[in-house]
Records
---
Amino acid sequence: MTKSDSQTAIISPFVLVPETVKLTGCPRSTILKYTKTGQFPKAVRLLGDRIAFVRADVEQWIDARLASNKEAV
């Protein structure tokens, strides 16, 4: 067994706001505004004041945006 075989990356089902900003390219304020208006997936409250989003929901939102842009072109 090689070293890479024994080290499997664990991917969280959640993405925190900073990672969501990187994934979407949208500023934090826009993501939070879209969340409040229903234009972005609902946030999940974690420990304390931390919020996150379900990774699959964010990826689906990105895919939908890409698809709508392709249709517009």
---
Amino acid sequence: MMICKDTIFRIEVRFVLEGLCIAWEKGFRQLDLECDNALLVETFLASGSANSMMVELCIIHQLLCRNWK
């Protein structure tokens, strides 16, 4: 079975989203988020997730705009 790069990107996005949601729900407001996917990190830093067609990226952008420390 071959997994394409697009699938891996989507899986990593989903894990970041789940981690941020869990942290927020548990009351954590200060995090160190580590990700070795340069494209994903660049997407967050350049606010490219705000206008993304990928729903998970839009939700991550909304989560990152919350009142984190």
---
Amino acid sequence: MNLEEIKNRLDIVEVVQKYVKLKRVGKYYSGLCPFHQETKPSFFVSPERQIFKCFGCGEGGNVISFLMKIENLSFKEVFEKIKEEYGLEIETSPKLEISKKILEINYAALKFFRSKLQEFSQAKNYLFKRGLNEEVIKFFELGYSPGGTLMRDFLYAQGYSLEEIKKAGLLDENNFDRFQGRIIFPLRNERGELIGFTGRIYPEKEKAPKYLNTPETKIFKKSEFLYGLFYAKEYIEKEKKTIVLEGQMDFLLAFKNGLKNVVSVSGSALTEAHLRKIKKYATVLVLAFDNDSAGFRAELRANLLAQKLDFKVFKLIYPEKDLGDFFQNKRDLKEIKEVVYLDFLFEKLKELYGKENKKDFLEIFLPQIKNLNLVEKDKYLTLLSQYLEIPKNILSEELQKIQELFFLTPEEEISKTFLPFEKNLSLKLVSLYYAFSFDVEEEDFYPFLDEEVKAFYLRMKEYKLNEEEIDNLEIKKRFFEETGINPEKEFKKTLKELKKIFYKNKIEKLREELKFSQNELYDKIVEEINSYLKELKKLEKNG
């Protein structure tokens, strides 16, 4: 039985009703979304199209994707569940076969790496010197890759082709072992599947990266992977709190010494995808990046992302540069303390800048409080006002400017998280327009739409949408009607947000151009930037 046949045999309403209390609304069913907290139903199921859609959090799909999401199952696991509960069996797709093959090769490679660590005593002694013991090495399955083509030859002898080994990310461009001369840390996802490896150079070599990860494969995405989550999730869920630190070694030492609700990221790049994974288990986030300038910057960024997802954010305080050093120095866990991140930051900036450098102080601190609730925001504005001796109303005005121009900050993550938001707003605007046929000129909103949504809008206008697209619009229309929103007010509010995004993007591009322009062109670009800034201020003033 193929995938389409499975979807046709499984009634989505019957499946969803096991998890969500549904109520018939016309030709749809609605209920409270199981994927986010809400008090009014924004979750709809279409028996005709056999799809679900939540207009609160954006989740949507078919019966297969619903089961994967609600049960936290892999593509492979969902079919095992379908077979077990519904007696249906599916043919495996080529993509699934590739993923299975990569997993199979990874397990074979791990067997090789672990055996080589037993033979290569220098690498093992290095791990002992770093504070690990035999029990930890065995439990976390650490290994070693000697070099040359030994691992490749081992896998080849097991019956795997060169192409298959390469697809698993285990060979370099010259078909040598990718991790040669490295201590191996296996990477298991939260379900325990062995999706890749990290290699730590040993012995040290000049011009070689200290750490090397499996490249992106069908099953490994670095920006989504958290080391140790598989081992720590039960402790995290119990405490509803996660400590995030840098690197595998720090994780292993923390776990060994009794700090078990921990995960680590590669480097210090905590992404929104990481945080969404953590959010399934915890509501409190404790930042424990290295006590250096890179760690400090990373925590600023992490706090903003965490605020967006409603985490309570704390900072882990310890004297050493990193947690690894802390445990190597045989410190006691009682010497570690947690403080509210913004309280820590306020004290840190006092130490760095004092009252003299008010500009730098505010440039760092104000963006960190921009998304707080009114009570918390007022608390920190009062602290700032008292310490820097600046009237609170002036600080509020400065904060407002930062709120307007926040997305101009050249952070790597913004491009990844901001554009989908723009697309989502554009779809909402077009859906409102479809549902209520406002008396508004196309030129007043069309230029501000996301490019993909522009194409969708034109097809909608020319009656060229397919059945599924029309059905989605009808579900949205029903949602707008059921929730009793003021459609015109919602349309204007959404358009205002889209205009803000449009102007901010324009300003950001122009500021990049400004770096490479001279004389008359420079003045012209500055003039353009100022004109867009004026438009932004107008929008806020008319708010």
---
Amino acid sequence: MTVDRSTAFAVIAAFALGVCVATPTTPQPPDRPVLSWIARAAKALLWVAAFAEQPPEHRHDARIVQHAIGDDGYPIVDHGRGL
């Protein structure tokens, strides 16, 4: 893959602009202790919810339906429930 001269200059200019903009004189993000506390609590609750969830083998899968087999050996299809 070849890069033409104008694309290379555009990449270099974008990099230089990013370096110039990201100097220590740029404004610092505001200190929001309440929002950071809420974010930390939400992150902790996500971990609690992830570990509180039952493993897949202990869950009842509602999609699995016991098939009823007719006298001819074929499954009886109940169209209200699927197979």
